[in-house]
Structures are given as C-alpha cells and as structure tokens.
Amino acid sequence: MSASLLRRGLELLEAPGRGEAPSGVQRGQDGTRPAAAARRRKRAPGPGRNKATVKGRVVKSAIEEYHKKKTVNHLRENLQYMLKGRIVANKAVTEQVLVQNRGRKSKDQPPKKVAKKKPEGTVFTEEDFRKFEREYFGRP
After folding, report:
1. Which of 11, 44, 91, 126 is most buried (most C-beta within 10 Å)?
2. Which of 3, 33, 1, 7 is nearest to 21 (CA)?
C-alpha cells in the first residue's frame, strides 16, 4: 500500500473529536510536487458548460424507453380476427400454396398415400367348405 492510502485509512478510522495528525506528516493542500498540481488542474473543470453533452439534448426517462421498446402481445386481437371470419378457402388453392412452399428435400415431401386394400371376398361359400370337408375327411 502507498503511504497516502494508509494515511487516508487512518484518518477515516480516527475518532471525530481527536486531534489532527502533526503538520510535519501532512503535506500542504496544494501539494509540493508539480505533477500533483497538473493533475489537480486537469481534474477540476472550470466554469462553463460541459462539452460532453449535445446541444438541445433532452434527458429521457428510462421507464418511458422501456415501455416504448416493450413488445406488445397481439395474440388476443389476432385470434378474434381469425375467428371472426368463417370463409373457408378453396381446397385446390390451399393445395397449390402448399406445393409451392414445399422444399425439394425428401424430408419436406409429404408421405405417399398408400391405397388401402379392400379385403378380397372368397369365391367359396360356407356350404362349399362343409361339402369339401365331408368329401376330404370323410365326415358325414
């Protein structure tokens, strides 16, 4: 630690009613070195306006900025709009739109529709099966 930091810490810890440090230990307020004086001159702004600000700039409220940039939820309005109209689009038009928006990759293609096979009816009737059973197995 530097001596100046140590001195400041001791000054903070010192009781308010106690005496000051001896004058030999403390330096003058203006400082004896030229570097300290230059630092003080650089730090202290003179009278006049702050050059870091822009002319005519208005300080904005952070709360107003937050409310301005906060996203608005339009879900309820959109649902009411969608549910209000009961117009159903033409099936051919919707299919055409879906085909246009479909990609060329295989993952974008819809699964092929497999035609369901109808169970084939038998040519033989129950009577024919009984008759065959009697002839083949010899049952009456």
Report:
1. 11
2. 7
Single out the residue of 9, 45, 3 nearest to residue 27, CA to CA.
3
Helix (H) or strand (E) holding 8: helix 3-13
How does pLDDT run across 50-74, given as a tens digit for each residue? 666 667 777 778 888 898 888 889 9
Contact 133, 139 (CB under 8 A): yes
| pLDDT for res 88 | 80
pTM across the whole model: 0.22
Boundaries of every domain in the chain: 3-108
CA dihedral 26, 27, 28, 30 (to 10 degrees): -140
| 68/61 Cα distance (integer angstroms) | 11
Q: How many CA atoms lie within 13 A of 25 on its CB side?
A: 10
d(CA 3, CA 9): 10
Residue type, 65: E
- Distance (Å, whole) CA 30 – CA 36: 8
